[in-house]
Design a protein that fits this description.
This protein is 2% helix and 58% strand. With 496 residues, the chain is mainly beta. The chain has one domain (18-494): Maltoporin, Chain A. It has a 21-stranded antiparallel sheet that branches. A two-stranded antiparallel ribbon has the order 6-7. Strand 19 and strand 20 (415-425) form a beta hairpin. The longest helix is centred in the middle third of the chain and has 7 residues, at 170-176. The chain starts with 17 loop residues before the first strand and ends with a strand.
């Protein structure tokens, strides 16, 4: 891999092992009042070696365990005629651990020195960690739709989240001489009420939505120097609304227009952190977005053997209090970035070239600009006003092809799919460009993924797999951190 901080120096990628095991099941029934009931228990275990960039990391690693159960319910004529229910609930218990307590640090040339802390640590921080963090998470998504008539309908959509975090790291507390992480809990609710009108023959469709957003957070935080603890209690709510319409010019050509004021409340990981490397953000406020979207859609679905769709969209967003990831004194943290404006265009095309061959392609161009008038917490004019936002790609594209056929390899009751996906991201910067000498750039990259899925025993046994980044291209994410090279995964699913 190329080291971003060593002027193009290349080293062999090391300490990048990754293991992931998933065991899950599904129990389905069509009785007991509901039209469909599905219960899905799941267990996930991961082990990840942490790769060094600034220096050669040799021992630090993380482990996670997740025990979860998902319940899905569907019911037509729920409680009364014309009312449909679609519910999803997920209850999870998570255990997260970061182990970083090596007593020596290594440079890429092989030299080494003692860790700054006598307790160890090699990730660049001046303290070790041996965490054993617990988290419980409950998520419920419920959709209720009521048909008033053929042209009119009402729907209520809710998303409720309840999260509790219990971080623990005795080694870090011993090294720092104080507690740095505390139990926390968070509750959030998003509720949307929509009214839809559909004209006769489906020529015109209008959907108006009113949303309510609410969240609370309770935790403690210690001052990084003094260690003085203080309680943090948040209780915030917001209102949003939007309207979207669609008009059919012809049976296959339609125009779309939408506008709205939407809110995105912080997720539980953004508010509470992960107890390992991301600390709670008590000052985090919701994102507020004023948006306008205009689009055209040419749709041949069910009207032509190709089922072709061609869509072009133009969009404008003015985002306030954008939530962004940033580094901190005792771990990373999510913070608000005042104002940003986005103008962009999206294009997508997909079609069945033949009964067995499906192709797609899409591209997005977006111009994101800093709209802050002054520097944060000051009256100093903002030198980056009008500059392109860093760490966000402005030009990206995807394309792919899928070949599917029954009994491709002989036999009966079998189905096979072969997939190929191509992704392209244009070069962009991970800091504001203030001079022509700006070198903090993330290079252009293209990746190729290939995958397959094969069903056996009358579609009761499914074997699938994917090879990502087949060409082993060097790819990077925020702050110019390398992403994995070629990697693969295999999945087996059995239906009894």
């Amino acid at each position: 891999m190329t080291l971003p901080n060593r002027k193009g120096a290349k080293v062999r990628r090391t300490h990048d092992g990754f293991e992931k095991y998933i065991i899950g099941g599904s129990l389905k029934a069509k009785k007991w009042y509901f039209n469909a009931i599905e219960l899905e228990p799941i267990y996930v275990r991961t082990y990840k070696e942490i790769q060094g960039i600034e220096h050669d990391v040799r021992e630090a690693h993380s482990r996670t365990e997740v025990y979860g159960v998902v319940l899905k319910l569907k019911k037509h004529d729920f409680l009364t005629a014309g009312l449909s229910l679609d519910s999803y609930s997920n209850l999870s218990a998570l255990r997260l651990s970061l182990v970083d307590k090596a007593l020596r640090r290594y440079e890429w040339d092989g030299s080494s020195y003692l860790s700054p802390s006598r307790y160890g640590g090699e990730l660049g921080l001046d303290y070790p960690t041996d965490s054993d963090d617990r988290k419980t998470l409950f998520v419920n998504r419920t959709n209720l739709e009521y048909l008033l008539s053929e042209q009119h309908s009402l729907s209520l959509n809710t998303l409720f989240t309840l999260a509790n975090g219990y971080p623990h790291d005795a080694l870090r507390e011993q090294a720092l001489g104080r507690q740095t992480a505390f139990p926390s809990r968070m509750r959030s609710l998003v509720a949307g009420l929509s009214y839809d009108y559909r004209s006769p023959k489906d020529k015109f469709l209008n959907s108006f939505t009113l949303r309510y957003y609410s969240y609370t957070m309770h935790t403690e935080k210690a001052h990084p120097q003094t260690g003085i603890r203080r309680h943090i209690d948040l209780d915030k709510s917001e209102i949003g609304l939007s309207n979207a319409l669609r008009y059919r010019f012809t049976p296959t050509l339609m125009g779309k227009l939408s506008a709205g004021y939407d809110v995105r409340i912080p997720s539980e990981s953004e508010l509470l952190g992960d107890g390992v490397s991301i600390t709670p953000s008590e000052a985090l406020t919701p994102e507020r977005n004023t948006s306008v979207n205009v689009g055209l859609l040419y749709d041949l679905t069910a009207k032509h053997p190709t089922n072709a769709q061609i869509e072009l969209n133009f969009f404008y967003n003015h985002l306030e209090d954008m939530i962004r990831y940033t580094e901190g004194l005792l771990g990373a943290q999510y913070v608000n970035f005042e104002q940003m404006r986005t103008i962009g265009v999206e294009f997508e095309a997909k079609a069945d070239v033949s009964p067995s061959l499906y192709v797609y392609g899409n591209t997005t161009y977006q111009d994101l600009r800093d709209k802050r008038e002054t520097e944060p917490l000051s009256r100093v004019p903002n030198p980056t006003k009008g500059k392109r936002m860093p760490n966000i790609p402005y030009l990206l594209a995807n394309a792919g092809v899928e070949y599917h056929r029954e009994n491709l390899f002989g036999g009966r009751g079998k189905n096979a799919r072969l997939m190929l996906d191509l992704a392209f991201v244009e070069e962009y910067y991970y800091d504001f460009v203030l001079t022509r000498l700006q070198k903090r750039r993330i290079p252009r990259h293209t990746t190729l993924d290939v995958g397959f899925e094969h069903s056996l025993r009358d579609r009761h046994l499914f074997l699938s797999g994917k090879v990502r980044n087949l060409t082993n291209a060097e790819t990077y994410t925020e702050l110019n951190r390398p992403l994995p090279g070629i990697n693969w995964a295999v999945k087996l699913r059995v239906i009894f």
